[in-house]
Write a structure and sequence with these properties.
With about 400 residues, this protein is of the alpha+beta class. The chain folds into three domains: about 140 residues, Alpha-Beta Complex (Adenine-n6-DNA-methyltransferase TaqI, Chain A, domain 2), CATH 3.90.220; about 80 residues; about 150 residues, Adenine-n6-DNA-methyltransferase TaqI, Chain A, domain 2 (Alpha-Beta Complex). Helix content is about 35%, strand content about 20%. It has eleven helices and 21 strands. The chain has a four-stranded antiparallel beta sheet with strand order 2-10-7-8. A four-stranded antiparallel beta sheet has the order 13-20-17-18. It has a four-stranded mixed beta sheet with strand order 15-14-19-16, with no helix packed on it. The radius of gyration is 24 Å and the shape is globular.
Length: about 400
Amino acid sequence: MRRTPDGWIEAKLGDIAEEVTVGHVGSMASEYQESGVMFLRSQNIVPHGFDLSDVRHISPEFHARLRKSSLVAGDVVTVRTGKPGATAVIPDGWQAANCSDLVITRPGPNLDSRWLSYYINSVAGGFISNRLVGAVQQHFNVGAAREMDLCLPSMREQRAIAEVLGALDDKIAANRKLAGTAESLLASRFAVLELDVDYGEKACLEEYFELNPKCARPNVEEPVYLDMQKLPTSELLVSDWERRPAKGGARFMNGDTLLARITPCLENGKAGYVDFLEDGEVALGSTEYIVFRSRPAVPRELAYFLVTSSRFRTMAIQHLVGTSGRQRLSANDVAAFTVRRVNSETLMEWGQFASPLVEQLGSLRDENRMLANIRDALLPRLMSGELRVRDAEKVVENVL
């Protein structure tokens, strides 16, 4: 039986929080618009933060009608459906926000928002998984949230725990912002090439890239494997992969660009540039993407910016074929796509600009992966009282 640390208390979330409620539940399709008040859904919440690459918006008038699900700084939001339990805190600086199908916790005077978010993302995972309901699409309901057991330190220690973990997350956020700036510079410089414009002398895409090129089989039992769902939608570099037993699948190497070729992944913009493998290592992945490899004298990074351009996306979706549940883009159709022919000197100049920025992105990604691993190792020990804040601070000081 777990011992409660001295000075800590045990309480139900519903007893200690000011309010535990749920975001709007109901049809929303007719209410979305291009701009307005940010409207969060399950896919916008990730542990400790937000993914706003596909965020929706609603009108200020509709937002005013949904007063119950209106969000303010300090509210803690938890995913109910999809990946139940992922939790984040609404930050300062958001002028207005609303949500659907999220558990909303408004902490009381003895509960720190950031501490609660870290708590739910860590030790409460088992609690949530044991209380999911629904036969097909499971969800975590508000009643179960109110019954969540908290092992609660003093407000001072809650804030100290949140501060030491937050230092790691703040560095992760700063790195992401820096990476976003680098990616914007790369995209702007790519636009100057005018490779994807619809005028000038034309060249088939296959003149620049090999599609689904052959390479050796991985010679290990558990090679790096990249599932279709691990391809990013808003970042250049692939950042989520695993080693697992795999005998077949598409093969790729560093410098390759991977493009999802099925709906809805293609429509959602899933693509990524590979640079995380050891030298000479070959990886496996889903057969449902097309692998692009630059030909000699063509910058390795070029394919990513081409396949994520709006013109290419529009053309690709128009070439989807198939009558069953999923439609697919064929490599043959991609090979026939045309781009503006650009001379080799211009391409080389672009590559000299792009290469160091992509290398910087890789360093930022690797650092964030390390920081997240440290945070996730400290988190349950701090939440249980096994590790004291002063000892965790020493660990954090050594990496920041």
